[in-house]
Design brief:
With 399 residues, the chain is mainly β. Helices cover 11% and strands 46% of the residues. It is built from 1 helix and 40 strands. The longest helix has 42 residues, at 3-44. The protein is globular.
């Protein structure tokens, strides 16, 4: 997130505060009436409370809506949206506990995180964290939720058992991402550091103490860890490189040249290849494969215009790349590193996630206010699902 985005986040926070302050007196009663009416009205329109338990186990997709301040559950069995769940201001970041019982929604335009029970689809009491909660990661044992606060320059640990926040941990400037090793012992926080090289801050989860920052490239914006936890790959947007970081020694290795503006990264389940989204001429994007054994970059794979993200199927055979300006998703075969035909979705796709069995990809389209299911066997899109105004974030629960 660059300076402009940072200023926009602060301006948005102030705007929402003014909007709610101006409506506070009349709004309390109105909200109570609307909240009471919603179940009857939406139920009458043919929706059902998706995500409520109807069998032994089920898959539910949760969508965070920026504009409506809600999280919408969608049943993967029926592709029907349930009742929206009120979740603070701007739930643009979601994370789910390993047992699938709780979704945590970071209220980016405020200073809270809202826990949502997936058994009842009810929101719990908001948890106060720092300003601008921008990223969330949960330890593999599900005990601690770590929240990155981009404006406060802190990380807040939350006990998942009690939903109480611990003492904030100081970071560098503008922390924007977090990842945790598979053994749960170390959390890594990505700091952009205004006007300087970015860094990765290791935090020992047993004591919540900071380690020495690890210098990476300029303008880092994303990172991903190999499944074995040995290497963290950091995309440096302003340096046109990816920096591998050894988690055994917490040292940065030689940067890998990938091309202009690397902005997203994903790693195959076998850990052999990292796929990096870069931005080319005419807003045309490409994906660069990096062989992790040698840290060498392969030939760029052309996708659509302004790719926003990348995700890989659970079996590791296909990477899906949402192209926000093309309003398409490009499937890439990880076996041949070739792109398939683009799949048409709603306007402005920004995120994608898969069902646990990998049979369906769900694509969030910010401009169309929809989520499109795609059959990964045939790469054919299904009927778009309405999911609030300006949907942005997605997680999938399997309970």
């Amino acid at each position: 997130m660059g300076p402009v985005a940072h200023q926009s986040l602060q301006a948005g926070l102030r705007l929402r505060r003014r909007r709610r302050a101006g409506n506070a007196t009349a709004g309390v009663a109105a909200v109570a009436v609307i909240a009471a009416a919603i179940p009857a009205v939406i139920g009458g329109l043919g929706h059902n409370p998706a995500g409520l338990r109807t069998g032994p186990r089920e898959v539910v997709v949760y969508i965070g809506s920026d504009h409506e301040d809600t999280v919408t559950p969608i049943s993967a069995a029926t592709n029907i949206a349930g009742l929206p769940i009120r979740a603070g201001l701007g739930p643009r970041r979601l994370a789910i506990t390993p047992d699938g019982k709780t979704v945590y929604a970071a209220d980016v335009d405020w200073h809270t995180v809202t826990p949502i029970s997936t058994a009842t689809n009810r929101a719990g009491k908001p948890i106060t964290v720092g300003k601008g909660p921008f990223a969330i990661a949960i330890t593999p044992d599900g005990r601690t939720v770590y929240v990155v606060n981009v404006i406060s320059n802190t990380v807040t640990p939350i006990s998942a058992a009690t939903n109480t926040p611990g003492q904030a941990i100081k970071t560098g400037q503008r922390p924007v991402a977090i990842d945790i090793t598979p053994d749960g012992k170390t959390a890594y926080v990505l700091d952009q550091n205004d006007g300087m090289r970015g860094s990765v801050l290791p935090i020992t989860t047993a004591t919540n103490t900071r380690g020495k920052p690890i210098r990476v490239g300029n303008g880092p914006s994303a990172m991903a860890m190999t499944p074995d936890g040995r290497t963290l790959y950091v995309a440096n947007g302003s340096a046109d490189t990816v920096t591998p970081v050894s988690t055994a020694t917490n040292t940065a290795e030689k940067p890998v040249k990938v091309g202009p503006g690397p902005s997203a990264i994903a790693i195959t389940p076998n850990g052999k290849t990292a796929y990096v989204v870069i931005q080319g001429p005419g807003r045309r994007s490409s994906v660069v494969p990096i062989t992790t054994a040698t840290n060498t970059a392969g030939k760029p794979i052309s996708v659509g215009a302004v790719a926003e993200a990348i995700a890989i199927t659970p079996d590791g055979t296909t990477a899906y790349v949402p192209n926000s300006q093309s309003s398409t998703v490009t499937p890439i075969s990880t076996v041949t590193n070739t792109a398939g035909a683009p799949i048409k979705v709603g306007t402005g796709p920004v995120a994608v996630a898969f069902t646990p069995d990998g049979t369906t990809a769900y694509v969030v389209s910010l401009g169309a206010d929809t989520v499109t299911p795609i059959s990964t066997a045939t790469n054919t899109p299904g009927k778009p699902i309405r999911a609030g105004i300006r949907p942005y974030a997605i997680v999938v629960a399997y309970r």
